[in-house]
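Reviewers asked in the last cycle whether our approach scales beyond single polypeptides. To address this, we selected a multi-component target totalling 608 residues and predicted its structure end to end. The input consisted of the following lines:
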Amino acid sequence: MAFLVHHLLAQTARRDPSKVALVTGGIQRTFAELDADSDTVAKAFQNLGVRRGDRVAIMLENSVEYVTAFFGALKAGAVYVPVNPSTKADKLAYILNDCGVRALVTPTALARNVLPALANAPSVTGTLWVGAVLPVLPQGGGSAASLGEILAAPHATPADPGCIDQDLAAVLYTSGTTGKPKGVMLTHANLVATARSIAAYLKNTPDDVVLSVLPLTFGYGLSQVTTSALVGFTLVLERSFAFPSDTLKRMVEHRITGLPGVPTFFATLLQMDAVKSADLSSLRYLTNAAAPLPVAHIRRLVELFPQAAFYSMYGATECSTRITYLEPQHLFDKPASVGKAIPNCEAYVVDEDGNRVAPGVVGELAVRGANVMRGYWNRPDATSKCLRDGVFLTGDLFRADEDGFLHFVARKDDVFKCRGEKVSPKEVESVICEIEDVAEAAVIGVADSVDGMAVKAFIVPCEGAALTQAAVVQHCRGRLEGHMVPKFVEFRADLPRTESGKLKRTKLTATA
Amino acid sequence: MPTATDLQSPVDAVAQEIRAFIVDSFLLGQDPGFGNTESLLESGIIDSTGIMHVIAFLEEKFGIAIDDDDLVADNLDSVERIARFVERKQALKSAA
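The resulting structure, written as structure tokens, was:
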């Protein structure tokens, strides 16, 4: 019985050793190879001092190395912490320190951002470099090793750390209202249960070939890996979606059956002429999550791929990223709904006292189930606000219709999603305010046909300052991940505020 | 060894302009000394949405039209690849 995440891989490797597990670029790995390689990496983590419950951060683009290091960290008994490779030094240092990361896996190519962060992260005692090993730093980073050399050496078996499924498997950082990202603690039990649930409703089989452009640092991307390990299907991992024509060619070449995406991905795909003539007759299903896809886009996708089922899904990092999905047969009678709870999960609307409300009444969506997190890392206050007796309050306002289908209404706070990733206005505002010539800044999400919502910044410059839009954007690019950089910048003489001085974002939205 | 003529070649001038744009837009104007053949994505210098900004810049600056089919790593994943791609596009344009 598989009860730890890496048991899923080991079991599939025994059942179907020579089956291709992973294809990225020109490289592929069978389940047996992936299982053996991740053993070797686990042993290397243990040699670097990683013990049961220690945190291991992986800051890589989608790659064979990523997946190998992910399973390797778990086999070593560690807790996996993904870090988006576009994370800048300050935020990386924040994450490394916040959860006391013991070992980091990162490419030499990112040294520019990684080295300054390591210098300020005393908890890190070992660094595994993908690419050339950078010398041991006097100021931090601990001992260093090359992931490539470790994998080229003979197979090594890690010591059994003795984990049970209540042990943490992952800490996933998510933006919150306060601006500082919080670490969502997920156990092995959470990830295994959610993988089973997702694979069940998508009816995954070992014959599936799923192509994913979603970053593995994103929970929705990682779930492709866990479901592949559970079911034994082939996962074609794209490094990114920077080069859509390359990706489209690989979709055809590998005769893919499953295509997970976010609205920006599908919007780009629909804009490509080549997609109309591409032979994608093998496609069995598409999934959308992270942000709602416009109904017009769903219709066009269904026209383009009439043989494929389309799944609208909704989730939260705090629920192992998946809460509901809409059965494809309801796509057109309930187009604006995110459906109902996934198998082995309950999702319902409650009032402010936590009581279930009648259909049609707007309230907060509450979630019970094996997917619900353990809490936020080192944040008992934030945890107690949203987690009560194992019930997670999503912070999203919903209503259920007469048939029990759930409809998203709005967020309770100001956080919105750009390209499917969370943007905390406060996080962006504080970065803009670092610019000397900025007196005040306010950030909101505005509707955008490609990105769903785009970041718009309203700025009050200091008197006499000659601030340009380009300078603001350039500063933000140097300090924030891509999805948080403002697409629009508007200068104003003042910002609308309440009598108590609180920013009136709704007023800004109305005039944006 | 590059000769003086190579250094003055149109590709080289184009590469310099592209590099300057990337440094200004993505690296706060500070050139960290990355190689012109280094992968822009793998090195984290730009992310996938950054590529779209580069494309908009190329279309405006060099007056070329970039098709869906052109959006491949072979054309766009390093300063040198971009420069050669721009040169091919310009040659096509003047031939038309």
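Chain B has one domain: 4-95. We regard this as preliminary and will revisit it once experimental data from Aim 1 are available.
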